[in-house]
Amino acid sequence: MVSTGAPLAVRLDPDDPAASALHARVLAGLPRSFRPVPADGRTRADVVLVSGAGTTWAERAQSAFDGGAKGVMLTAIDAWHPETRWGCSAPPKTGSACAPPETCAALHRIRPPAGVATVIDSAWAAHPAVLDATAPIAADLAAITFITGAFTVPPRAGPSGRLAVEHLALVRVVAAPVVDVRVLAAGDGGYELVGTAGQVPVHLSATVSAAGTERGELCLLGADRQWSLAFGGTALAIPPRVFRAAAGGETVRPAVYECAQRAAWRAMHAAVTAAPVPRYGLACLRADVAALTAAPAATASPPR
Questions:
Q1: What CA dihedral angle connects 149, 153, 156 and 160, to 10 degrees?
Q2: From CA 140, how far away is CA 115, in angstroms rounded?
């Protein structure tokens, strides 16, 4: 834990200029909490951003821990590669769901020291509108009998394997960890998987498409009530629509005009200065990836 008085020094990731630029814009809106420092490594940083875009991200994350960082923010981690289920052995290509298999192993090589925070930048699970709804959703979980989710994302959103991990993260945060996962289909075009969350059947899918806009919905369904979390994209002007429907009518949660990255940085500041455990951290990511990699191979062809 560190003093809450001075802003925390943040070093962005020079190996991923795009991610660093995005997070720099977010941090500019939190001047009392964070201050950027040069990315050359010469200036001590309290918090380090590490992107999974490069092949050495695990080593860079561990180096940050070993160098005394109080926290590490992980972003764009391609920790699951579904095309390997169909014998993909070709080198990874841009936009492909196939990626080096050592990436998954690298996730388990990271060993944060005790008391050091690791926060995962998750577009859905870290969104404040989702986090604000977890308590009222929890009150209804005993009545939920089925969970289903479908997303459509553009190719620039990254490999479909990354999206599957994001999907499991969302279900974990609002309901329970997804276990007994079976991958029905997966590839460059998306994925379809089933499993259970707290003994409730789960069906999740995503389609990578250049047509239309980014959108998706997660529904928690019961005989007399349901919850919907609808996402229209990651722009601030399109907040998620979260509502509960029951016999007495529909209740819409207040719109939250804050991006998931900003919420993740606020969680990081709280974890470093006040020591609460982040809602979705490294242990959760490892468990979700383990559930995917242990899933039985599908008999159907992956979507193309």
A1: 40
A2: 33
User: Which amino acid is located at 45 in the chain?
Assistant: A
Q: Which of 57, 157, 5 lies closest to 48, judged by CA?
A: 57
Distance CA 148, CA 128 (A): 21
- Cα 61 from chain centre: 17
As a whole number of angstroms, the distance between CA 21 and CA 299 comes to: 41
Q: What is the DSSP letter of 262?
A: H
Say if CB 152 and CB 167 are below 8 A apart.
Answer: no
Q: Which amino acid is residue 83, in one-letter code?
A: E
Sheet strands (E) in 54-143: 71-75, 117-120
Q: Answer for the pair 178, 197: CB distance below 8 angstroms, yes or no.
A: yes
Residue 146 CB neighbours (<10 A): 14
- Mean pLDDT over 74-96 rounds to 53
d(CA 216, CA 154): 12
Question: Which range among 37-46, 87-96, 103-112, 295-304 shows the weakest confidence by mean pLDDT?
Answer: 87-96
Residue 125 gets which letter from DSSP?
Answer: T
The pTM for the full model equals 0.87
**Nearest-angstrom CA–CA distance, 70 and 33:** 14
**What confidence tens digit (pLDDT) does each residue in 94-118 have?**
333 334 455 567 777 888 998 899 9
Dihedrals phi, psi of 88, to nearest 5 degrees: -70, 120
CA dist 76 and 16 (Å) reads 10
Q: What are phi and psi of 140, to 5 degrees?
A: -105, -5
CA–CA dist 115, 111 (Å, integer): 12
Phi–psi pair at 217, nearest 5 degrees: -150, 135
- Neighbour tally for 132: CB within 10 Å: 14
